[in-house]
Design goal:
About 35% of the residues lie in helices and about 10% in strands. The protein is of the alpha/beta class. The protein has one domain (about 10-310, about 395-490): Amidase signature (AS) domain (Amidase signature (AS) enzymes, Alpha-Beta Complex). It has a ten-stranded mixed β-sheet, sandwiched between helices. β9 (about 445-455) and β10 form a beta hairpin. The longest helix is centred in the C-terminal third of the chain and has 24 residues, at about 380-405. The chain is globular. It starts with 10 loop residues before the first helix and ends in a 6-residue tail after the last helix. The relative contact order is 0.13. The chain binds glutamine. The site of glutamine has 13 residues, from loops. Glutamine binds next to loops.
């Protein structure tokens, strides 16, 4: 069997090959460039996609600025030495343009590194290309980017999911080894499900948000998107941990997640929330769930039906809370301090109106209006405050469930990847596609999506595990046991068989 090209390897395989002197970082970068030359034109996972030229990832440029370790020097560095990691376009890399895929931020240069970037660099990673996303991370399809949509590498007529669609598509297409995304209501897990890769939304406070452009500050988390579960465990360990620069970051020690991977799952209690298995998901998703239950039982887990009674209110609460926080966070983009400004305006007010009117896309405006309305006097109690009370109830549902079980199993999304353009005219349909992922953000708990099935047309379907706060270790344990007992990651080509 001929060896896999280096871009098809996992982080773990690359680290091994480096240690044995079989591979050098430049080989990995060259292989990625070759794959990008073939596939990026049709997928458009990177925002600098079409015009990438001879330095597709910007890695050479970064090397000149000391942002990547020199060859050879990686040896003395950490667990990601010489591993390129792609970065969603809402995470700051000092000295580089950051746009959140919005016209309003065009030309804005990050003044500092996000904490996750500092941590990646300290671990020896190479900061790779910037990935496409829904504008300001609002959306589940990656179609609202000002750069145009990303396509799903499994079927170019379909969306890759969103908002971290570029990150998931690049990892699935082997034009990235691994990537960072952000997840406010499912934006790591749903694209991971649609593209057939692994995505983790860590516990709220587990990973620093310093240097992440805020969408909804009480929900946002940065997390890994990778080819397999082991890589996700390795990458999360690097980026997690307390950060005094983020007041919401938790001072909780970070375990060695890889140490959880080879523990068996015999006797683990897994809850099946009955509300998530009621009608609503496609028959293919339901078949995937039935298969997952059988498989987990075979591995010795105990499956029990539980109830999360407030599930029916999850989407409603989220679509009040997230736009409210977003309307406040996005108020700073007023044409004065950041990015795009309408220079032709005659008055200050006109400058604000024109800059925001021309800088923001339709979905961003829709959410700012929704959020501003929910927060306005007279409506605050009826909408925002009420939604926050519902959020508490949703969280209590999970607290109760975790008194009985160690983890929960649910679908990640109601369907496999939908067609490009299928839902753009219908925001409500878009919002409903987040029904299974949002609750983890509202409750602040960790969740992972990994491949659990493949439709007859070859589209991946993800399954989701959820756990108690800061119990990512057990998520990895479960996900790894399931992954290793199935062959989806191999059939999808994530890992060479
Ligand atoms: N799809 C959800 C939304 O549209 C989640 C987005 C996210 O997690 N950033 O808000």
């Amino acid at each position: 069997m001929s060896p896999s090209p280096p871009n098809r390897l996992t982080i773990t395989q690359i680290a091994q090959a480096y240690a044995q002197g079989r591979l050098a970082p430049q080989d990995v970068l060259d292989a990625l460039s070759e794959e990008i030359a073939v596939r990026e034109g049709e997928i458009h996972a990177y925002i600098n996609g079409a015009a990438m030229g001879s330095d597709p990832s910007g890695t050479l440029r970064r090397r000149q600025r000391g942002l990547t370790p020199e060859q050879g020097q990686e040896e003395s560095l950490g667990p990601l030495r010489g591993v390129p990691v792609a970065i969603k376009d809402n995470i700051c890399v000092e000295g580089e343009e950051i746009t959140c895929a919005s016209k309003i931020l065009k030309g804005f240069i990050s003044p500092y590194h996000a904490t996750v970037i500092e941590k990646l660099l300290a671990a020896g990673a190479l900061i790779y290309g910037r990935t496409n996303m829904d504008e300001f991370a609002f959306g589940p399809s990656c179609e609202t980017s000002c750069y145009g949509p990303t396509k799903n590498p499994r079927d170019l007529g379909r969306v890759p999911g969103g908002s971290s669609g570029g990150s998931a598509a690049a990892v699935a297409a082997h034009t990235a080894i691994a990537a960072l995304g952000s997840d406010t209501g499912g934006s790591i897990r749903q694209p991971a499900s649609f593209c057939g890769v692994v995505g983790v939304k860590p516990t709220y406070g587990r990973v620093s948000r310093y240097g992440l452009i805020a969408f909804a500050s009480s929900l946002d988390q940065i997390g890994p998107i990778t080819k397999d579960v082991r890589d996700a465990a390795v990458l999360l360990r690097v980026i997690a941990g307390h950060d005094p620069k983020d007041s919401t970051s938790a001072d909780v020690p970070v375990p060695d997640y890889a140490g959880f991977l080879d523990r068996d799952i015999r006797g683990m209690k897994i809850g099946l929330p009955k509300e998530y298995f009621a009608a609503g998901a496609s028959s293919q998703v339901m078949e995937t769930m039935a298969y997952a239950r059988t498989q987990l039982a075979r591995l010795g887990a105990e499956l029990v039906e539980i109830s999360l009674p407030h599930t029916a209110y999850v989407v409603n609460a989220y679509y009040i809370i997230a736009p409210s926080e977003a309307s406040s966070n996005l108020a700073r983009f007023d044409g004065v301090r950041f990015g795009f400004r309408d220079e032709s305006a005659k008055t200050l007010l006109q400058m604000y109106e024109d800059s925001r009117g021309r800088g923001f896309g339709a979905e961003v405006k829709r959410r700012i209006i929704l959020g501003t309305y929910s927060l306005s006097s007279g409506y605050y109690d009826a909408y925002y405050l009420r939604a926050m009370k519902v959020r508490t109830k949703i969280k209590e549902d999970f607290d109760k469930a975790f008194q009985k079980v160690d983890a929960l199993l649910t679908p990640t999304a109601p369907t496999a990847a939908f067609r490009l353009g299928e839902k753009v005219e219908d925001p409500l349909q878009m919002y409903l596609s987040d029904v299974y992922t949002i609750s983890a953000n509202l409750a602040g708990i960790p969740a992972i999506s990994l491949p659990g099935g493949i439709t007859p047309e070859g589209l991946p379907i993800g399954i989701q595990f959820l756990a108690k706060p800061f119990d990512e270790g057990n998520l990895f344990r479960l996900a790894h046991a399931f992954e290793q007992s199935t062959d989806f990651h191999r059939r999808l080509g994530n890992v060479a068989s």
